[in-house]
Each structure stands twice: as structure tokens, then as C-alpha cells.
Amino acid sequence: MKSLLVLIAMMGMTATAWAHKPSDAHVALSADGAHVTGRLDVAVRDLNGALQIDDGDGRITWGELQAASPRIADYVHSRLSIEGCPMAFGTAQLVTLSDGAYWSLPISATCTRAPHELLITYALLFDLDAQHRGLIHVAGQTVIVRDASPVRVELGARTNVASFVRLGIWHIFSGIDHILFLLCLVLPAVFQTKRARWQAATSMRDVAVEVLETVTAFTLAHSITLVISAIGLISLPSRFIETAIALSVVAAALNNLFRTVDARWAVAFSLGLLHGFGFSSVLIDLGLPSRELIGALLGFNVGVELGQAAIVLIAIPLLYAIRRTFAYQALLWGGSGVVALIAAIWSYQRCFI
Amino acid sequence: MLALGAVGLAGALTTAAFVAPNKAAAAVRPYTPASASDVVATVPRRDPQEVAARQLLAKSPDRVELAVALARADIGRARSLSDPRYLGRAQATLGRWWAMAEPPPDVLLLRATIEQSLHDFHAARIDLDHLISIRPGDAQAQLTRAVVATVTADYPAARASCDAVASLAPALVAEACKAPLDALGGRAADAFNDLSRAIDSWRGDPSLALWATTTLAEIAIQRGDEPRARMLLERVLAADPNDAYTRAALADVLMQLHDPAASATLCAGYEQIDNLLVRRAIAEHAARGPEADKLAQMMHDRIAAAAERGDRVHMREEAMFVLAVDGDAQRALDLAKANWDVQKELADARLLAEAATAAGDRAAAAPVVEWAATNGVIDARLERFLGGLR
């Protein structure tokens, strides 16, 4: 319901719609032994409210900000602290978040001894904006600070990486398209081309080498795009990625039927690039601060590889055992055909529905 | 083989050309502007009078009338600029009195107004009831109480406040207070005519007529007369393009009129305002506009940012988005249910009914069915969903 303030005179309107977002500042920290590093991102317009940086024309320039830099550092120094860890600041830069420019101040602190937990006092801006929130990101947790009283944050980085390993494994097993893609690629491995004719592989060693090549190529490719995408270098529309991944499954399955490309490692690599973008969406959705991204990426990728390895280790011996039977032929031709069909339907759905 | 590899790489690289910077909060990399003269932020110009008043308040922090005037100005800015930061500023300015059980009446009114804006209807109602017990002739308090009571479905209290407003404020204000209650209780035609007449005969402050016209349009929507609502809302917007509430209402009407492209255009350029971003994202999605994915991502970012700071102010908008764009009926239903626990306007009822319909969960709509039956609510859109569920 539209409410009316009869008694409050309406203020003069201006043409600009300001950011409709309450004020937040981010403090991302990570601890390595006795060293705590990180960064504070605080909105330029909030700093202006506290320190009157603008010269009065309503436009804050980079020059004005730099001139105010010592005052900003003093302000932060007097209002942000970690108990037992005296803080120093690096050279500030800017970051652009969804609602405008933020002053980004590198933090480094050296504690008297390696901490198990941090006792952080965050007291910026509350006296000017009671709805201001300090969001402290440490070790995979975000603590919301609503007032100037100190908050205690446990440092649990190790369990954190482990949880990303689990996330990676879970993602492989829950994403049927990745499994099908991988299976399509390794399915013909037990049945190799010799002198332009297909015949059952004669040794497990040949099979293992071929599978290793394929899986390594896939891993390499999706790791590259996973990293590129997770650190934000490239971001693609999810509809595009999801469709492309489904099409890659079609391609891998059709390749079994028509045997266009015998070097399946090449297929694994080129199309695996697409899958990395799909993996990264999981991490991006978590909105991890950059400090935690490395550990998360590493853990997640390890998890993905473990999941992959499990699938291959189960599938290959089975396939090897049945490679001379009709069942294998049925699986190779029929299975690939069915997968191609299903994945084609997915492609259509993901693109158009 | 090379061909396939080339196709894969080419695909990846072509898509890289669409690169849209990822805005997920802290994953963004800092940069240094190229030149000292680069403008990095625009801020409202400082008002010398305000600066003087703040200095005065700093010198004598007990002067409640100074704090009230400053806070009132900030609440006005929060509304006219659709910027909630000013609410927090107003609250901070009142800080000395904010936590008091018995603050001065003027502070009580502003505290209630801020609480209402932050969707803390319970606290707002307590403050307003208290204020009215001290100062029953406070028209603004009665009017705000009518709004809060309506949003929380306490219609007898809303009606009592509107009755009080009738003897305290101009006839148009009283009529605009009462009309939505009449309309909700099944007398939309009369309510529309009464309010329409009151607007036509109004000769005072034009901004009051605009406010009442938006209310009139909402009654037209309730009657299923979207073309009329569109006309009325367009009139209000023409007079005040910064009225984000009316712009959002018109965007909804255009969607009902099956014109998502017009709805998207209407909201374009207002993406900073959550209520308009969500509507543009939904409209672009429906119109299959070129920016649909980008807008959906922006909205996801916005939702994540709000969740990160622990806010649950925009559950209605989030539910709308999840239903229309993500197509996740179950999640939308959960959000719509949680939203219904907080606010019970017609829009919230429609949303819950729509989400329940989409999720095929008849039982979930029961609270709305009961609410509509108890209060004799007749609403064209609600009927469409509930009809399907019965």
C-alpha cells in the first residue's frame, strides 16, 4: 500500500534514482599462521558521509579520494581492529560492486601468535547510518556486524576446503550430463582401432593409457575454464553454457556412432572447456570472497576429479570384461544412440524452454 | 579432430566475446582509476542548511526538535529517491532517543515510519498505538496506523484510524484512506466512484491528488479494469516520473495487459531500485528480450546481497522473480508463504495463490482462501487463481 506522509513536506525531486540498497561494507580476512591479510571494501558515498570528501559539486573524483586517503586510513584505524593483531593498510584501490564504487583497502596484520579465532571490532559508519552492516568474511563464514561490539570468528579453513571437496564430488554425481559425457568418451576405449579396423583391446594397459589420456585432457580443459570463470575473468549466460554442455554430450555420443574423431582426448579437451564453465556456476553461486576462492577452487576441483576417477575405475574394468560380448556392442551403439537422443532433447529444452 | 577442437575453442572464445563482468560481491578485483579527474561516485550535493543544522545538533545533542527535523528530511529523501540509506541515517540521527520506551511523540512517529519502511510492522504498530494514546489528534499517526493495520490485515483497526483521519485531515485524504478498505471488503465499485469524485473535486496540493490517483488505480485493478488503471497510473507518472511505487504498479498492469515489452521499457534505467529491477527482469524474460539473462543475473546478485546482510525485506519481489524467471514454483511458494506471514496486501494474496497454483499445491493457498472468505474480498486476479484451485 502506498503510504502518504501528509505532514512531511516532500523534498525536491532529482532526476537520478539512487542505489536502492542499504549500506554494507565488506571485510574479507584470511589467516596464515600469525599473519592476517585481507581487504576492506567500503562504499565511496558512505566514506563521503563520514569524512566529507566531496568538494561540494556532488562528484567525487579519484583525485579527491586520494587526497583524503590519510584521513580515510585514520578513520578506519580508529574503528576497525583485531585484538592482538595490530593492523597496517596497503595502497587503496577501487572496486565496483553492484551499487557503485567502493574504496578497497588492503589490510595486513601481524598477531602476537598464530590465532585460532579472531576478535574483531568493526565500528565504521554505525553512528551515521543505523542500518549500516559490516559483513566480515573469514574462513568461509560471513558474520553480520550490526553495532560496534566485538565479534568472535573461528578460523576453520581446513574443514572448509574439505567441504568443497565434498561439493565437487556431489556435483559430479548429481550432474548426469557430466557423467554421460565422460562415459561416452571412455566407452570405446576397450575397443580400439588397429590398422583402420576396430577390434577388442588386447591388453588392459592399452586401455588404461587411452582412458588416462582422455580423462586427463578433460580434467585439464575443465580446470582451465573453471578457474577463468570462477575468478570472474569470463562470465557467460547460464542458458548458453547449459545448452552447450548438453550439445557436447550429443557430440561425444555421435562420435561413438560415426567415429569421426579417433583421438578422443582431443574431444575431451575441446568440449571439456565448456564443462568447466558449468562447474564454476556452483562456486559463483556461493559468492565466495576472493580470499577463499583459491582453497575453494582447489577443493572443488579435487572433488570433481575424485568423482570422475570413481566413475572411470568402476566402468573400465566392467567394460573390459565384456568387451568381446554382444552386450558391449549393444551398449556402445545402442547406449550412445540413446544418450545422443536424450542429450539432444536436453539441448532443446535448455535453449528454448 | 583438429576441426572439432577448433570448433570447441572457437565456441569458448566466441562466448568470451559476450563477457559480462561477474558482480558477485567480493570476487571482484580492485583497480586503480586512470586519472585523478575520473569521477568515481556521484553523491547528493550537500545542503548548507542541513550541514548547519547538523553542526548545531552536534553542539547541543539534546535538542530533539533539531534531530526530528533532520530525520524527517532524510525520510523524505529515502522516499523521493527510493534510497533506503536515508532511513538508516534518520535512525542514526534519532539514536539518542531511538531505544527509549517513551521517546518524545515526534520521535515516536518517525520511529514508527522507519519501522514500517523496514517492514517491521509489529514494532511500528506498537509505536503508533502508543502515540495515538498520547496524541489522538495526530493525523499522520492515524494515517500511518491505517496503512500498517491494512498491511497486517487488521481491518477494524485500519477502519478506526481512517474514521479518525476523517475529522483530522482533508476530505481527499480521508477518502483515500477509506476507499481501499471498502474495495477490499467487496465494494470496489462504490469505492472507485467515491474516490474518483473526491479527486475530481480536490483543489488543494496536487501531490495529494496524485497519491490518491495511484490508490484509485489499484481499485481499478481489483475490479479487473486494467486499461483504466493503466490510464490513471500513466497520468501519475507523467506528473512525477520519480514515483517508483507507481512505476512498479504500472509495470504490473502492463504485464496483465500482455505487453511485457512496454513493461520492460517502463522499468529500463531504474535498475538500482529493486522493485523496478525485478519487474524489468520478469518483463524481459517474458518478452525474450536481449538483456533477459543479464537482468536475471543482476537480480540474483541483488537477492544474494540482501541475504548476505541478513535482510528479508523483499520476499515479495524475490518470490515474484523466482516464480516468473527461475520457474521454481516450489521455492516461490515457500517465499510467498513466508511473505504472507509478514504482509497481507492484495498483491501478497495474489502471489501466494499464483505460486500455489503453479506448484499444484492446493493446501498452501488455504490461508488466502480463508482470508478472502473472512473479509469478503473480491479481486479479479485472485479469483482466477483461486477458481483454479477450488
Compose a concise summary of this entry.
Chain A is α+β, with helices and mostly antiparallel strands and 353 residues long. Chain A is 52% helix and 20% strand.
Main sheet makeup of chain B:
none
Distance between the termini of chain A: 35 Å
Helix run count of chain A: 9
Helix content of chain B: over 70%
What is the H/E string of chain B?
Answer: HEHHHHHHHHHHHHHHHHHHHHH
Q: What gross morphology of chain A would you assign?
A: elongated
Poorly predicted sequence stretches spanning 5 or more consecutive residues of chain A: 6-19
The value of Rg of chain B in angstroms is 23 Å
Structural notes for this entry:
The complex is a heterodimer of chains A (353) and B (390). Chain A is α+β, with helices and mostly antiparallel strands and 353 residues long. Helix content of chain A is 52%, strand content 20%. Chain A contains nine helices and 13 strands. In chain A, strands 1, 2, 5, 6, 7, 9 and 10 form a seven-stranded mixed beta sheet that branches. In chain A, strands 4-8-11 form a three-stranded antiparallel beta sheet. In chain A, strands 12-13 form a two-stranded antiparallel sheet. In chain A, helix 3 packs across helix 8 and helix 4 runs parallel beside helix 6. The longest helix of chain A is centred in the C-terminal third of the chain and has 32 residues. The two termini of chain A are 35 Å apart. About 4% of the residues of chain A have low confidence. The relative contact order of chain B is 0.05. Chain B contains 22 helices and one strand. In chain B, 72% of the residues lie in helices and 1% in strands. Chain B is mostly helical. Chains A and B meet through strand 1, strand 2, helix 1, strand 3 and helix 2 of A and helix 1, strand 1, helix 3, helix 4 and helix 8 of B.
